[in-house]
Structures are given as C-alpha cells and as structure tokens.
UniProtKB/TrEMBL annotation:
PANTHER family the record matches: CARNITINE MONOOXYGENASE REDUCTASE SUBUNIT, NADH OXIDOREDUCTASE HCR
Residues covered by the 2Fe-2S ferredoxin-type domain: 235-316
Name recorded for this polypeptide: Oxidoreductase
Keywords (A to Z) from UniProt: 2Fe-2S, Flavoprotein, Iron, Iron-sulfur, Metal-binding, Oxidoreductase
Species name: Mesorhizobium hawassense
Tagged with keyword Flavoprotein: yes
A single GO molecular function term of this UniProt record: metal ion binding
Domain FAD-binding FR-type: 5-107
C-alpha cells in the first residue's frame, strides 16, 4: 500500500454510465504499466481541477493493477465534485490521484462475513465480495436498492460472484425486501459485518446492529454519521510541547492547530477520509467523524470535524 501523500497524474482511460446516475471511471498511468497495489475497501483521493478533493472507493480488481476503477454517483445538492465529474470529465483528461489508503479493510477471519450495501455503497463492498469469492470464504452480500434499474454495478456483480452469495432487496419488489432488524438479529458465531451506503441506510444498519459485539461491525460512510445540531462550544487544545491552542466555536480544531503552526494534512475536511487523524493523550473528545472504528475512539481524534469538552491534549 503506497503512501497517501504520493500523488500520481492518472489519465481517464474510460467512462461508462451505470444505473442510478453513476459514472464508472477507469484511470491509468500514461507510462507505468502497473499502479500501486490496493486491498478491498481502499479508496483514493481524486483532486479535481475545480479545487475540490474527493474520496472514491476502488471497485476494480486488486489483481489488475493496470488501472483503478471508481464509480461516482451524481449527488444532487452535493458540493459540486460529482456534478463536475459527470458533466466535464472525459476520456483523455488528466487527474491527480493519491495512492490508495484503506480505512475499511477486510479483517482476517475464518467466520462468515455479512456484506450490506445501499445503492452506491456497493463500491467498496463489491471489491470485498470479489476477494471473499476468490478466497472461497463464506459470505453473503445483501444489496439494497430502489429497483434493478437504479442499482449501480449490479450487472458486473452478477458476473463476478455466485447468485448464492448475493441477495437483492429492491424497494419495487415486495418479495425481495427484508427488514434490516430481522436480517441482523441472527449473528452466527465469529461473523463480521461490513456495510456502506447513504446516510439513511447507514443509520438504519447502525441501529439494527447495535447488539453485535464490539469489533464485529465495520463500516464506511460518505458523510459524517452524527448530524448534531448542538451549537459547537469553544474548547482548548494542548500540544505535546505544552503550547495551548484555543478553538473558537466557529472554527474547527484542524484550522486552530494549523493557525498555531502545526503542519497537519487534510483532505475531505468532512470527517470521512481520515487524512487529518491524530492521537490524543488526555481529555474528552466529542467524536463527529465517520471514519474512526469504535476501538480507536479512546485514543484517536479527527480534528476537521470533532471537538472536545474543556481541554484536549493531542499527541502532536
Ligand atoms: S480531512 Fe478527511 S477526515 Fe479530516
């Protein structure tokens, strides 16, 4: 896995349309036959010429490093990145893309794996399903969509894994629908759950999997999970060298730390990519990100969106 700070200039080798207002983009290097390796669940940061950086899961085959494949859904009411890709990006264009990173890895386990995807959340889940299928591991992929005609990558998925491993839950076919609570009420011994999808889907799965044991639930969100309307409070940060940084209510911890002269990388500034992640040593953070796994929340912090009560000592 390459460093996230390596940025490669990749060429758009192909664009095709998928159901659900999705464009699939193939990216290649104009000289190098092979790109840095990646694992299922990995994503890249794509630097758009409109000054935006967006994270997209790699949904192609990790055994074919001649290209990266991403799938981009047009987000109406989004912040403009997906609209630019849909309306402006054409084959032959050059895009700066970081080497892959993985905040959503498949864990080593011999137990059964339950994969849940909602709509465009199929992108990392597809890569996982392909890997599990190849490895002959026991898994079920439950794909939730409004209809077949709005389910991106479904055709490719059906050609890649067995129909025995795939369950479709389509809103327009009553007989295929299944209640999430019912689905997640059985937890086979040693099972791991992975899920990805839009915010409503994420919230529903989080609720339905509340009783799953710690360390068995894994997810990747496109937006922060916490929609907290509480007005942010000011707080203080103490750095390792003893410097005290105040974070006003209208600024992020990231911007306050940077203003204090600490160089901290960031990308999405939305709590979903993990680029700005750092450690904390003391204090009570208020986690508002969608990237840290629960077992990291006792010592890691995402300063672009998370805050704290009182004083937070960072490992910076
Ligand atoms: S910059 Fe992406 S999580 Fe902070």
């Amino acid at each position: 896995m390459g460093s996230p700070r390596i940025i490669m200039k990749l060429i758009v080798a192909g664009v095709h349309v998928e159901p659900g207002d999705v464009r699939v983009i193939e990216l290649k290097h104009h000289r190098r036959p092979l790109l840095p390796a990646f694992e299922p669940g990995s994503h890249v940061d794509v630097h758009l010429p409109i000054g935006k950086v967006r994270q997209y899961s790699l949904c192609g085959d990790p055994e074919d490093l001649s290209r990266y494949t991403i799938a981009v859904k047009r987000e109406n009411g989004g912040r403009g990145g997906s609209a630019w890709i849909h309306d402006q990006l054409t084959p032959g264009a050059e895009l700066p893309v970081t080497a892959p990173r993985n905040h959503f890895p498949l864990k080593e386990s011999d137990g059964p794996v339950l994969l849940l995807a909602g709509g465009i959340g199929i992108t990392p889940i597809f890569a996982m399903a392909r890997a599990l299928w190849r490895q002959g591991k026991p898994f079920e992929l439950h794909y939730f969509a409004r209809s077949r005609s709005l389910a991106p990558l479904l055709g490719a998925l059906e050609k890649t894994i067995s129909s025995e491993n795939l369950r479709l839950h389509l809103d327009d076919q009553v007989e295929t629908r299944q209640d999430l609570e019912e689905l997640l009420s059985t937890r086979p011994s040693g099972a791991q759950l992975y899920y990805c999808g839009p915010p409503g889907f994420m919230a529903a799965v989080a609720l339905a999997s509340e009783d799953w044991p710690d360390g068995t639930v894994n997810f990747e969100a496109f937006q922060p999970l916490v929609q907290d309307d509480t007005p942010p409070e000011p707080f203080m940060i103490v750095l390792r060298n003893g410097a005290v940084v105040s974070v006003p209510a209208d600024k992020s911890a990231l911007s306050a730390i940077r203003a204090a002269g600490v160089l901290l990388m960031a990308s999405c500034e939305n709590g979903v990519c993990g680029t700005c992640e750092c450690g904390y040593l003391e204090g009570q953070p208020i986690h508002r990100d969608a990237v840290l796994p629960s077992n990291a929340r006792s010592h890691r912090f995402i300063p672009c969106v998370s805050r704290a009560t009182g004083v937070l000592k960072l490992d910076l």
